[in-house]
Amino acid sequence: MSGFDLQAYLAERRALVDAALERALPSEHTPPPTIHRAMRYSVMAGGKRLRPILVIAGAEAVGGTAAMVLPTACALEMIHTYSLIHDDLPAMDDDDYRRGRLTSHKVFGDAVAILAGDALLTLAFRLVADNAGLVRDPRVIREAVAEIADAAGTLGMVGGQVVDIESEGKAIAAETLEYIHRHKTAALIRASLRVGALLAGGDAKAVAVAGEAGGELGLAFQIVDDILDVEGSLEELGKTAGSDERKQKATYPAIHGLEASRRQATMHAERAKERLAGFGPRSAPLCALADYVVERKN
Ligand code: GRG
Fold it and tell me: Is the CB of 184 under 6 A from ligand 1?
């Protein structure tokens, strides 16, 4: 045990992120109100805020502050929320519950849910542009935009989602499953840590180390997500459990079994911590987060 108070750290950073998201989203009364209501409905439904907290923790690991990266932290949460809204659509996973409430398309209809996702993705890049006023060298914004676009697009999250959908109902190799998880989930988590370090003035080596740790953390996170889908409940998860099996999705427990999946999640979290050791005492929040990712129940 490190003695680091992760719960207090998460609560403080979550409050910062929630307040910044509240400011960044157009009010429900801004015309046209329906789309702004839909955007707010999904973003402000809660969620762990893992990706924005990782942006902040990445900045802190190189001696920066939350204030330097808050717009970009919100951008990562908006991209993540867009992906959840679209993933829940009837054309994809067709899910009824997310973050403890009905999914966006169940409340607003498919068309508005699609547009709410599109609008969140677009607003995210506006927020990264707004981050230029907070960094020492605004030239890093160009790199941050490229980094986030690559992680969210066909070389990252969208690419992973495509292979995931194409693999449904098929017996796939363990390597293909790792590809899906590294792209669908880990790419955005990796980018969160990298852009946090980048915007706060981290050098190329620090950004690379943050990215390596983020990739391992992201893979551990998705393996645990697979395990929770088997072991969790609607109350704990805020979404319907057991959906992977119903949709005949390839998962770590399906391919490797529960015990081996737990061991692999722990191994990737440990690898993340090894990479983070180079940041010294400033890595304490991230190391505690790596343990949390494996132990979490939702
Ligand atoms: C639709 C382009 C597109 C991509 C979808 C993110 C994703 C790819 C699909 C969502 C379903 C899923 C299980 C994705 C894996 C990533 C993941 C574990 C999402 C849930 O993230 P949490 O647990 O959610 O951080 P909260 O609600 O806490 O933010």
Answer: yes
**Type and span of the H or E element at 165:** helix 157-167
Does the pTM surpass 0.85? The reply is: yes
Q: What is the DSSP string of 213-236?
A: HHHHHHHHHHHHHHHHHHH--HHH
Domain, as residue range, for 259 = 6-295
Write out the E strands in the chain: 97-98, 101-102
Q: H or E segment at 125?
A: helix 110-130
69-94: buried (b, 16+ CB within 10 Å) or exposed (e) per residue?
bbbbbbbbbbbbbbbbbbbbbeeebe
Note the pLDDT tens digit of each residue in 107-153.
999 999 999 999 999 999 999 999 999 998 989 999 999 999 999 99
The answer to the question of residue 1 being in a domain is no
Give a yes or no: residue 228 inside a domain: yes
Please indicate, yes or no, if residue 142 is contained in any of the structural domains: yes
Q: Whose CA is nearest to atom 2 of ligand 1?
A: 158
CATH number of residue 212's parent domain: 1.10.600.10
Cβ of 147 below 6 Å from ligand 1: no
* Span from the CA of 139 to the centroid of ligand 1 (angstroms): 30
CA distance 20 to 119: 17
* Ligand 1 contact, 105 CB (< 6 A): no
**Is 195 part of a structural domain of the chain?**
yes
pLDDT per residue as tens digits for the range 20-67: 999 999 999 999 999 999 999 999 998 999 999 999 999 999 999 999
Say how many domains are in the chain: 1
